Amino acid sequence: MTSTRRTEFAPLVLDLLDFMEEKIREAIENETSRHAAIAEAAGAVAPLRDRLRENEEVQASFILPLDAQMYDAHAAQWWVDFARIDRPEFEKVAAVLVGPQGALEALRKVASAANAPS
Questions:
Q1: Angstrom distance (rounded) from CA 61 to CA 30
Q2: Helix (H/G/I), strand (E/B), else coil: 84
Q3: From residue 27, how far is each of 13, 17, 97 by CA, in Å?
Q4: Which of 79, 89, 112, 117 is deepest in the core (most CB within 10 A)?
């Protein structure tokens, strides 16, 4: 089945990364919504993984920092476990993902570069 794409590659990837970060930050700020917010962030994995297939160079940049979260056979379970870990460990893992030098920020730069003219 061939899909019709209505959104350019880089803007969609950037929007999905932004959404994931927003939900992870929501989970950090509001303990009572942690499980739901992380489940929502995990929901962006499938469309992100699908679109990354269009650009192997960008996809390769995602594999190392987000292998467990996106590509591992147990990626869905990783998100469930992430939502359940104790607060101090949750904050450490979240910082690796959404901190100033976090994985999502680095990947945002890669996706932005994919949109730049050659």
A1: 31
A2: helix
A3: 21, 15, 13
A4: 79
Do the beta carbons of residue 54 and residue 61 sit within 8 Å? no
* Residue range 15-39, pLDDT digits in tens: 999 999 999 999 999 999 999 999 9
Residue 43: closest CA among 7, 83, 85 = 83
How far apart are alpha carbons 109 and 85 in whole angstroms? 29
Token match 């469930």: residue?
80
The reported pLDDT for the residue numbered 27 is: 98
Helix, strand, coil % in the chain, rounded to nearest 5: 80, 0, 20
Residue 66 has pLDDT above 90, yes or no: yes
**What DSSP string describes 20-38?**
HHHHHHHHHH-GGGHHHHH
Q: Which amino acid is at 37?
A: A
Instruction: Provide the 10 A C-beta neighbour count for residue 37.
Output: 20
Name the DSSP class of 4. P
What is the C-alpha separation between 85 and 44, in angstroms, rounded?
Answer: 21
Q: What is the pTM of this model?
A: 0.91
